[in-house]
Amino acid sequence: MAYVFELPDLGEGLPDATIVKWLVNEGDTVKTDQPIAEMETAKAVVEVPSPVDGTVLKLHGKAGDVIITHAPLVTFGEAGEKAAAPAPAPAPSMHAQVAANAEKASATSGGGEVFYLPDLGEGLPDATIVKWLVKEGDTVKTDQPIAEMETAKAVVEVPSPHDGVIAKLHGKAGDVIITHAPLVTFAGKGGAAKAEEKSEPEAKGGDAGTVVGAVQVGNTIVAESSDAVVRALAKKLGVNLASVKGSGAGGKITQADVKGAAGKSTASVAASASTMPSASVSTDNPLAFRASPAVRKLANELGVDLANCETSGPKGTITRDDVKAASSGKPAARTAAPATVQPAASGGRLQPVSVTVHPEAVRGVRRAMAQAMTHSHQTVVPVTLMEDANISRWKKGEDSLARYVRALCAAAKVEPALNCWFDGENMERLVHPAVHVGIAVDTPDGLYVPVVKDAHNKSMADLRGDVEILRKKIAEKAIKPTDLSGATITLSNYGSIAGRYGTPIVSPPQVAILGCGRFRNELKMTERGIENQRMLPLSLSFDHRACTGGEGARFLAAVIADLEKPE
After folding, report:
1. What local confidence, expressed as pLDDT, does residue 194 receive?
2. What is one Pfam family matched by this protein (predicted)?
3. Would the CA dihedral through 171, 172, 174, 179 be positive or negative?
4. What pLDDT is recorded for position 119?
5. Cα gap 209→122, rounded to integer Å
6. Which of 254, 335, 461, 511 has the most beta carbons within 10 angstroms of its beta carbon?
7. How is the chain split among helix, strand and coil, in percent rounded to 5?
8. What is the pLDDT of residue 360?
9. Residue 13: its pLDDT value, please?
10. Beta-carbon neighbour count of residue 32 at 10 Å?
């Protein structure tokens, strides 16, 4: 029996991962723990092993695709079995539990069939009800829009999967519905019966009302026929999807199919859109295009109709550059048509210059860094204390990094409040007896933060050895998620490059990070008169929700005291 293997969490709460390359092909027979894919997370490139022995029926994605954690990755089964056969994942997910509960509920609702919210965008976990387009008691037809749902990417219409009578609407405007949770219950068994009356060709490749992903209608799995991008394109070109024969996998209708049906060249969506009157699709229609609120606002400011924009973003998304290109009458910047910008003298707008720049996707480690910094900015209440440590008594060739780590461990004994995790939602903190130090490592790919575990129990030589092993793993792209997780406090040695003081960013759930600046020589008055002393600038940032100013100051004082020891 076939089942879907969902992408597991490849790190502590990482939301997604990018397919680097598949290590197997559809039809291959694999063994348990055999690597099946290389995935790039926000922290590292890791191999994903097979959870079972079996045959690969379907690979959900291609190299470069971003897969949401717990979204389908591989469908397994027996040789000759069809990938469309529905089956649960090896371990029950939250969605599976929700569906199971809904199935129990439907058993007591007079035999009515429950229509579950389909995945409205690759792996999106939920959607918000904007408004219902039907009411309980209404009779609906197949593909009739029944609700407007807002996802993280766009507002889309959800069509009815079949003819039937609406018995129950599961939620009201503003409610968040989890993907695969109940959305509508159809009265009695009429809905299921009418779904089964569909012709065989329609059951195999017809539009079951899904937006993205397959949906179960009665006892039949209907293949995905179109996604939000295809629907938007069809609406823009005036194409009836019911008359289009899909050339994609499982009868899926592709953008090329829609363009072909419109009698246009598949080379340019914009050329097709330009033949439509501008009033046919307005810029502020949230159902027609995949564009963020910021992009819509820009289009409104520039007087650009989104119908006249190229879609150069991922999965057909309209970007700011697409809107600007439409405003200037030039094609959007893609791989062969770079954008050219420079800061304006005033007004904050970007103006063309002679130097060309190419936009590049922020992915992998850099993408994770951006997400982590955004999360920190939105949650942490930071404060930074700055002070100098006099390290003139260090012996020649002292291992500065090992000294920094040792000083953090010493300070954690004096003031444990900063070696801590904090949960702002539940107002709980977890003070750690062990010190696991995350060390920021700068690389061309972005910022890695490997963790030296149990640093409080290690000698200076052991600390240095652990750091070198972790750095080697990063250089060889062999770092594991376990090497990057579990830090209780972080060290940033930016002074090895440049910089005296800074405001290091705290990474939740941690509450503190120590930044070490660049050494400097300074004349100081000592017992022997004025002497040249070596000073180390320190910047300690901490979350003021979890730590008091006194705790932060005592911690920093303890760090300085340990650093100023001769050895």
Report:
1. 38
2. 2-oxoacid_dh
3. positive
4. 78
5. 16
6. 511
7. 30, 25, 45
8. 77
9. 63
10. 10
59: domain CATH number is: 2.40.50.100
Report if residue 348 sits inside a domain.
no
Q: Which domain holds residue 145?
A: 107-225
Cβ partners under 8 Å of residue 529, min gap 6: none
**pLDDT score for 17:** 82
Q: At what angle do helices 400-414 and 460-475 cross, to 10 degrees?
A: 120
Question: Do 431 and 558 belong together in one domain?
Answer: yes
Give every residue of the chain whose pLDDT is below 70, as ranges.
1, 11-13, 42-43, 79-111, 121-124, 152-154, 188-238, 249-250, 263-289, 293, 315, 330-355, 364
> Are 59 and 150 members of one domain?
no
DSSP string, 381-411: -EEEEEEEEE-TTPPTT--HHHHHHHHHHHH
Say what the pLDDT of residue 166 is: 93
Q: Which tokens in the block code for residue 320?
A: 């700011």
Same structural domain for residues 217 and 308? no
d(CA 393, CA 401): 16
Are residues 398 and 519 located together in one domain of the fold?
yes
Is the entire prediction scored with pTM above 0.70? no
> What's the pLDDT score for residue 219?
31
Q: Which residues, listed in sequence order, are joined to residue 423 by a DSSP beta bridge? A: 428
Spell out the long-range contacts of 544-550 with Cβ–Cβ below 8 A and sequence spacing 24 or more.
544/381, 544/382, 544/383, 545/380, 545/381, 545/422, 545/424, 546/417, 546/420, 546/422, 546/429, 546/511, 547/417, 547/418, 547/420, 547/511, 547/512, 548/417, 549/383
Whole-angstrom Cα distance, residue 515 to residue 30?
47
CATH code at position 329: 4.10.320.10
